[in-house]
Automatic annotation (TrEMBL):
Cross-referenced InterPro entries: O-antigen_ligase-rel_domated, TPR-like_helical_dom_sf, TPR_rpt, WaaL-like
SUPFAM superfamilies on file: TPR-like
PANTHER family xrefs: LIPOPOLYSACCHARIDE BIOSYNTHESIS PROTEIN PA4999-RELATED, TEICHURONIC ACID BIOSYNTHESIS PROTEIN TUAE
Topology with respect to the bilayer: Multi-pass membrane protein
Domain O-antigen ligase-related per the UniProt entry, residue ranges: 210-366
TM stretches of this protein: 16-34, 46-65, 77-99, 105-127, 139-156, 176-195, 204-221, 227-246, 258-277, 349-368, 388-404, 410-426, 438-460
Residue ranges of TPR repeats: 600-633
Chief location category: membrane
GO cellular component: membrane
Key words, A-Z: Membrane, TPR repeat, Transmembrane, Transmembrane helix
Organism whose genome encodes this protein: Candidatus Gottesmanbacteria bacterium GW2011_GWC2_39_8
Subcellular location, record wording: Membrane
Official protein name in the record: O-antigen polymerase
Name of one Pfam family that matches: Wzy_C
Amino acid sequence: MLKNKPSTGSGNKIRMLLLSTLLFLLNLLPLAYFPLFRLGFEFTKYAVFLFFGIVFLFSGAIYLFKNQKIEVPDRKILLPLAFLFLSYTFSSIFSIAPLTSFLGFYGYFTGGLVYLFFLILVFLVAVQFQKEKKIILQSIFLSAIAVSVIGIYQYLNHFIKTGDYIFRIYSTVGQPNRLAFYLISVLPIAFYLFWEEKHKWTRLLYWDGFFFILLAFLLTFSRSSLLLLFIILILFCLANPLKLIINLRRVRPAQIVASILFGLLLLIFSGVMFRSFPSTVQSFTSSSLNLRLAEWEGVWNASINREPVRQLFGSGPETTYFTFFKYRPVVYNRSPEESAVGPGQARNYYLQLFAGVGLVGLIIYLIFLKNILNTAYQEGVQNKLNQAIFWSLIIISLHGLFYYQTAEVMLMFWVMAGLVIFGEPLKIGRGLRKLSMLFLFSTPILLYLIYHLVIADYYASTGRIEDLNKSVVLNPYFDIYRRDVSRYHLSEMLNNKDKDKELADQYYFLSKKAAEEALKISPEDIRNVRQLLLLNYYAGVNLDKKYQEENLPVAEKLSQITSTDPNDIDLIGLVYLDLGHPDAALKYFQMEKDLVPDTRGVYLHMGEVLKQQGKIGEAIDSYKHALKLSPNWDLAEKELENAQNLLKK
């Protein structure tokens, strides 16, 4: 992180430690996957990144005592960076969910304040290693090869077992689209290493690696990333028409063959992709694209339909999930018995920033991004390695329009951004030394906290109640662990409702305690409201109606959060139905019917309401409609028979 003095041996050792740590992080993070965590992919990468971040913090703090100067970016980079961190800090402090904004949304993690702090630290470390730039990029390249080989193995293993040639690989990244965007970001670096290498056998090795990365990228069958690749190729040709003509005269035979193979692979896999998906274009425009546009619309509406201060500074980093449901588009109700929940993160990084840190934070980030890209472009004019970095940064920047930034892609962006910045020497004063002392003494505490995070998630992955309780003790800040505890006790309550009512009551109270604690930790999280509502509903139906009566304020809270999710509306209607309030229940069932008219369950429930109101004939019609949608449905047949018997009487 710091500029070494040649005369200081210990300083050089720390510098080498920093470089080794950076290389190890770049190699390990994309490959990090540990199935014994509750989230094998995302949480593993989160824990790995935080651990290495603490190592950087510790090493840098020591190095401050060994040197008189450090390299820092110039003001046009440093000022936007500082203001970006301040914007995140301000938005996190006044967030609607401060814990989530600080630590990250469970399942994604990459947008929280803590994560940004360590990304900036990685950026400042990368600034110090201009001379080692190629080694760092080779490390990124090697890691991408390893990820690609694992993905290709997944494909071959699936094909041999099933004969199905359409299988979307995900490798160690965990999801095909995420993998595609990670690999496409590495392609310019991979292509540069192959194209510029002069040694015959080394060039062959680079070509093999490039081929593996490209092949794995295509096997993700990611349409949006393939579209992005074509956009980048067009932009590259438009930006370098004269260079391309001149360089074609000097091209080597191996490069010609490689270029032909590259083009053939793109054409073949593009054809396979669009043949393999029936009516792909129609499907893409009518389904996938519509759903994504609706998601963006929902996040946009949640971002602008709030008080002015929230528009400026956001609802807090990583809080998209909490604000989305009030504006959840009806297109999310995709099929009669299925509805999409909603985004933990918007599949548009810039929209995600606007929602989280507001217009101020978004503008600051765009200024920072513009200055980084401008610097990379200027450096790329004189240095082809920087030109490759520039195109990787362009891909990552455009990738943000299609998806949120994953852990692998964010790490690449901040490292590459640091590699194109030539730092200016900054004298280490007393203030910096005091800050380094603070960092130095905080590292044991941070390591202890990381240990608790890791062990807690490991315990939570087992599903055993004794381990779930341990996870709550070790990490009391993640409400999801308490929600898991509540679900466990709810399951035990239902298992014992007919065997031992007293024991079932005990499980109810344990489940309720955990659900209320989860709601207290994160009152904006709709999942916590649902859990408490569901618990009280089942307890009211199976144990005692008084539990159902406690559900009315919870049902009211849920109805204020969402008005377009048929599952939530149906549950609220069932609460009122079980309490003997048919008019209120009918109101919600009618809302559900308007949202998803072909859902069998709503006609069953409306039939029960009509039966309670004494409208037996209309109830019979409703049951028949349910059976029309789902023939041979035993429950609907039974209710229809009961209604017909009532009509005869």
